[in-house]
Design brief:
Layout lengths: L8 E4 L17 E4 L6 E3 L14 H23 L3 E7 L2 E6 L5 E8 L1 E7 L2 H14 L10 E3 L2 E5 L6 E2 L1
Helix pairs in contact: 1-2
Length: 163
Amino acid sequence: MKQHHYNVTIKWTGNDGYGTRDYRSYRRDHVISAGLKPEVPGSSDPAFRGDPERYNPEELLVASLSACHMLWYLHLCATHEIVLTDYHDEARGTMREHENGAGEFTHVVLRPKVTISSGDHDKAIALHHEAHQMCFIANSVKFPVEVEPEVRVESPVAGRLSS
């Protein structure tokens, strides 16, 4: 069995000179990095005193699920002779917070809207199910991840779309 390892560095950048003296004395800002890749500005959700202009861990979890599904779907389309010309997902996650401040995600819904220029429409829909089964991230979470795909077929006449 193959193993893959991922190294990520998180550096807190929100110390305004007082450290964590109290709940309001620090920013939740941090930087996520991995090797030579561009840094990702992070913070907590604004509901938890975070910076709304930075990514929060909850958004990154939903983004990871969406990206993993998309990458598997692209691969499967390529191997099943379905020519995909556009992919767009507006994924949504729901997290429940408990009275003590802890919480968990209760579900995520992926809503990929794709356009194909050739290949079987029904097979293009079915490949979303297969992509979901293959997704490393979806296989790793304890909450349901639903996929509600929409596949449009690009007509050869002036790029017209049909569902």
